[in-house]
Amino acid sequence: MIEYGDAFDCFVEISEIMETNSEALLENGRYKEAFDYSFYVMKKFCSTDMDDSDGGTGLLCSGGTEIWEEAIKDADAEKYVFDKLLKYKGTASEWYLKDISEDFLFDNFNKSQFNDQKLKYADKRIEELKKEGEFGEYELGGYLKKKAKLLREMNASEEVFEKFCAENWKYSEIQIYCIDEKIESGKYKEAEKLLLKCLARPVRSGITTEYCRHKLMKIYKQIGDKEAYRNTLCDYVSFEIFCDIEEYKELKRLYTAEEWGEVRDRVQKNVGKHNRDLLPEIFSFEGQTDRLLKFAVAYPGISYIKEYEKELMPYYPAEVLKKYKDEFLKMTASASSRDTYKEIVRDLRRLSKYEGGKALARELVTEWREKYPNRRAMMEELNKIVISKK
Fold it and tell me: What is the pTM of this model?
């Protein structure tokens, strides 16, 4: 077992050796040997038990596939590498290399002589995964997409291609492939039709509403349909958890001041149900300090009251300080580490700069000294607070 602290150094050393030796083989025209050698190193590295949290395996395999790309520039080596990868099974510990090898197999070797074997391989894997039932569903979509791409590369008839996609439409990989293909070829209306279909009848394994709306916005922007873009953006901001404040700001720019009030309230109501963490940013942007205060006070802990403290204190000092007091009392009641006490002391020092903050700090420090005299760490941290009497 290679521990975390040694794993990345191991990757660096092995990677340098692999690349140096492989480059020497390539320079001498020994393309097959360069592949075999790099493949052997990658296989050994991937099957070694190690804590690879820093991602050394991915980096090493990336360097390895660059060697493969050079090797298959030679016609004889190209056929040799193709046959090797086609037959490679991979053990359970080599799953990463197996995935890398399959991707390389399908992304390269684009000559017609290889297509039939790639198609047979894809069909075989699809059948195997279908037999696994629910256990195979996770991987199945990826192979179906590989087959769809192959059908295009092999110039299959439109009827054959459409039939295949229709039979496997429930898989998000097929939906995305077909939609992206139409967008890339400028068939915006056809892409819009598919996206609206997915949006109206979402299926468990299909694409998300977030994807549909995001793609629709791009299409409407491209074709200049401003009303459809605005309506879709409004839905995106209202219902999608990946929406951010910049998209909210853009939505606001698309309405007049007279229109915005009603739209804003409706959008905020929906955001509160679907993307609640965006609400304080919206309230801050809109200058709705009353709603911002209500949200920050209701939210457990002090994260939001602290983040928007400077905005809220000028208008609601009593409410902000009360929220801090309530949370500090909860924190000290269950605190068991010095770090918690340090955090509270830092916050009290900062709050003492506000009107009313000094009084709160004195009140709490006095109460805690009386209530928790035996908490040594707490008393030591409280001793670090110096509050002027003015």
Answer: 0.81
